[in-house]
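User: Is it possible to get a 3D structure for a protein together with its bound compound? The compound here is adenosine-5'-diphosphate. I've pasted both below.
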Amino acid sequence: MAQNGHILTVGGKGGVGKTSVSAILTKLLLRDTKRLLLIDADPVISVAYTLGENPEQTLGDFRQTLIEAPARQREIEKRPIKSVIRDLVSTSDRGYDLLAMGRAEGKGCFCGVNELLRFGVESLCGEYDTTLIDCEAGIEQVNRRAVHRIDELILVADTSQRSLESVVKVRNIAVDYNEDRPIETHVVINRVRNEEDRSRAGQAVRELGLEVAVFVPEDGNILDYNATGRSLLDLPEDSPSVVALAGLLSAPVAV
Ligand SMILES: Nc1ncnc2c1ncn2[C@@H]1O[C@H](COP(=O)(O)OP(=O)(O)O)[C@@H](O)[C@H]1O
Ligand SMILES: [Mg+2]
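Assistant: Yes, that's possible. Here is the predicted structure of the complex:
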């Protein structure tokens, strides 16, 4: 996968495994990415918790402060917005930086503030080799609140027909927002239990005009780690989900 300000976004329907996939990709990217920024774009914070982090401040809380205290806004406007956003980023001792988006727009929010913050987030991404964004269901709010540009979109679905169909919807929204910039998409089918699941999902995705990049098996370790609150960064290297997703990162770049 390409580097240098590269923005990778993980999208798909709710509950299909986006956060787990994002956490495992973080683990894998840390193998050879020097500067990695992880953006938790789920308002209730998810990938951060899955990795054992508890961010103290979120972009959403900061946005609310700006709305409620216009004097604060004027003070902020004196500094480059990128450095203001940087103050909200925490550095994990596991080797990556983390920005939590937090709550969505609150009362009294107006476009100007959102635009300013989004510009700040997008400029900050340029300081990292790779930015990985874990979305809530859908990706609209990522475009509105985090970045306008996505270089690579990882579409996650499980083997249910509804989640497979949602992959196309999410892809179309992303392409639309990305305007004329190219977007590389990879379909990840998660929680594959057997060969039958695999061939049925593969066929359904082909019928939707896409190809599956990786099939991730049902992995008991993910369930165990999530149940006991252990960080998915500590999953064994030979855990089936880790092995499968390593194949995604080592795949040749399709244009
Ligand atoms: N490959 C997998 N094997 C087993 N359980 C999984 C797998 N992927 C996700 N899960 C479980 O599915 C649930 C939803 O996953 P999550 O990553 O939170 O989805 P999303 O972010 O799309 O809402 C979690 O309980 C997680 O432990
Ligand atoms: Mg999630």
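The two ends are 11 Å apart (CA to CA). The mean pLDDT is 89.
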